[in-house]
Amino acid sequence: MKRIIVPVDFSEHSEYALNTAAKLAKKNNAELLALHMLEMSEVVLTAGGENPQKVIYFLKLAEQRFEDFLKKDYLEGIKVTPIVKHFKVFSEVNEIAHKYDADLIVMGSHGASGVKEFFIGSNTERVVRNADIPVLVVKNTVPQINFEIVAYACDFSEESIDAYKKAVKMFEETGSKLYLVYVNLPNDKFRNSLEIEKLAVNFFTKADGNLDRMDDVYYTSDYTIEDGILSSSIKIGADLIAIPTHGRKGLSHFFEGSVGEDVANHSTLPVITFKI
């Protein structure tokens, strides 16, 4: 891991992300790209056509606030590159990730009072749905970032193999123990034990070329995917939940169309997404 992007909006939750990213940067000797997406209103931009000094004033004011925000003791010893972009939304973060060849995006989000507030229309949602690299979402201070045990949500579909490979590569490098969590649903989503095992065998055969990880699969039955993942992460003592996403289609399309936003919304653990 060489470069980590942290979008900053000066909120308490973006500081949670900055603090978490700093710990990851120290552990991996990585560079931190602190990104402030400056949102200039149409009024200011229009006025700037007549008075460019006004726009320059607001830009300098934002840059100074950004500089002050980055004066944290926990950033000492870390190479921090501040980046200010004059965009209106956070969806352009993916362009920055490609330009700087970043490995991870770390974002903070409150997400405590409902899926609508956490994802729909939020900057976090825009980043998750547009990012080609993993996005780590935190909602509070992460005391330690060893992530020794990871609960990886998996439906054993062939389309999710690439996301699984990205996750395996990352967590092998960090020395984390990866458990694949499969949630069996009632009604038309229900599968018996033999059917699930066949899915797993096919998945690992095509993804790994062997069945070594069959013992690392945690099966559970629940009424919803998100409930199954959250309860399973507690049972296996996970430090982190990993979820494959369909990017622009949103988390709601992962796991054969079930709603996955609630996992990140209601989890007290950090959640990392991998693009399918």
List keywords for this structure.
Universal_stress_UspA; single chain; Rossmann-like_a/b/a_fold; alpha/beta; Universal stress protein; 276 residues; 2 domains; Rossmann fold; UspA; 10-stranded mixed β-sheet
Architecture overview:
This protein has helices spanning 12-28, 42-50, 52-69, 93-99, 115-118, 123-130, 161-174, 193-207, 225-235, 261-266, and strands spanning 3-7, 31-37, 80-85, 104-108, 135-138, 149-153, 177-184, 217-221, 240-245, 271-275. With 276 residues, the protein is of the alpha/beta class. It folds into two domains: 3-138, Rossmann fold (3-Layer(aba) Sandwich); 149-275, HUPs (Rossmann fold, 3-Layer(aba) Sandwich). Strands 3-2-1-4-5-10-9-6-7-8 form a ten-stranded mixed sheet, sandwiched between helices. The chain is elongated, with a radius of gyration of 20 Å. The model is unreliable at 112-121 and 250-260 (pLDDT under 50).
